[in-house]
Known about the structure:
The structure holds two protein chains of two kinds.
Chain A: H1 2-18, H2 21-40, H3 55-72, H4 75-85, H5 87-92, H6 98-126, H7 134-162, H8 165-181, H9 194-201, H10 204-216, H11 222-253
Chain B: E1 3-14, E2 18-29, E3 33-37, H1 44-51, E4 59-64, E5 67-68, H2 73-79, E6 80-83, H3 95-105, H4 110-123, H5 139-151, E7 157-161, H6 169-180, E8 185-190, H7 193-199, E9 202-207, E10 210-215, H8 217-222, E11 227-234, E12 247-252, E13 255-260, H9 263-276, E14 280-287, H10 291-299
Parallel strand pairs in B: 3-8, 3-9, 6-7, 7-8
Antiparallel strand pairs in B: 1-2, 1-4, 4-5, 9-10, 11-13, 11-14, 12-13
Amino acid sequence: MIRHTLYMTLRHLRELWRQPWFVAVTLVQPVIWLLLFGALFKKVVEIPGFPGGSYIAFLAPGVVVMTALFNSAWSGMALIEDLNRGVTARFLVSPVRREALIAGRLLKEMVVVVIQSLIIIGLAAIVGASFQSVGGVIALLVISALLGATFGALSNGFGLIMRQEDALIGAVQFVVLPLTFLSATFLQANLMPHWIRHVADFNPVNWAVVAGRSAVAADPDWGVVASRAGFLAALLVVGLVFATRAFRSYQTAV
Amino acid sequence: MATTIEAEGLVKTYPKGVAALDGLSFSVPAGTVFALLGPNGAGKSTAVKILTTLTLPDGGRASVAGIDVAVSPDRVRRQVGVVAQGSGVDVQATGRENLRLQGQLHGLRGRSLSQRVGDLLDRFGLTDAADRVARTYSGGMQRRLDIAMAMVHDPQVLFLDEPTTGLDPEARAEMWDGIAGLQKTVLLTTHYLEEADRLAGTVAIMDHGRIVASGSPDELKAQLRGDSIQVEVSGEVDGALEGLGLRDVMVEGGVLHARADDGGRAVPAVLQALEARGLAVASVRVARPSLDDVYLQHTGRTLTR
């Protein structure tokens, strides 16, 4: 299975290598968020309850997580394209492990997430955000990669069940923005309405934002980082099982 | 001869109650080419999907290379090569990469993999295009790559689901030559009569999810009432051809039409009889019945091309 996963990962990375501009295009949006929201909400940090520092520094880990979410959530689109082209059917009649067909895509998403995150972190550092330690940055990368893989798995699973691009687009849009706004991405948790704070406790995007922000802060709370990373890893396993099982749904329908 | 593909009473109903297979049974001896012939919607592709483990039947059983497809799908997958309807080529990858990946999934490595891939590229005329992404390939080239990918692990059985649909006549002829030279057990589905006639040792005509007639192309044609003979002749033919075993004798506009079990054999006797009457023969034509006639007889419809 590991070998098959490696083969499938290489296939997807090769695709990426042939169109590297793809990474650049998907970076336009987060860069705009970082710079635009960073400027727009500059004064937010003056609200009592904010710990101080610059808003860009507060926002940057959130944008890293958001980027991971927004890109990986579309992972299922490529799978649907493979379904339509008959590429997936061709793999399914070979002895390839079904887990590898999903895991290969997720590993590629994780590579993309890491590349994009590094670019955003670099850019944020230039415009004034500070990242306190290399260890913290690595933790942030791991957390956004975990979040990306989790949503990539869910996206692939739903892609296999829906098998229609329009349906998946609708589902992704329905999920992605609300999850972002029901998290501490833009605002300190203690300034959020009560009910949103409760919802956020169960929001994987919030887990990633809270853990990622803490990891790069001056005094990281490693307990929070580790526990949220653990939640994300557990959810990733669930997503992986779900997506692998979704092949059965596809196979009864063809 | 050993049987390589065996289907027994396969039933498959899709959601919304569409019956794709309705008790499909057939068997394919090792080393032969078997064609499922029928129009779109007859259930040919569904049969292939079941036999290649892509989907499960609702009823009946099937085995490939002696392995039950429902019980040990993974073992079946090692024995079969599949060219699905449409294509299974990854158009973002090169021909070589497509082939290598298939080989790797089937456990080929290192030198033997490179060699096998090189051989197949050569054999299917893709060596020059091997390192171009498949998006740039013509339809015929993609189809040849498809077949090469299905062959990479030297499977016992090859499934070709409408391998020439959508190809231009030239590419189709090339493909036929390629298929004829495979020397494997092949299950072919097609809605081209000519294709079944030309490639298959046994043809099974499918209609509404079951087989309505099967046999060699010649056997199937022989089930019709013989060949048709047409003789262009001048003068009175009445009674000249009695006792020659002809049927449906009829003269129309200077052309004599008749049917015989074996047109080739009947013609000399016909000519002799006409000559004995002193009638001048301008031309003779013997037409073999086509699979189209057979199809028409069994289903009451012609295959629309």
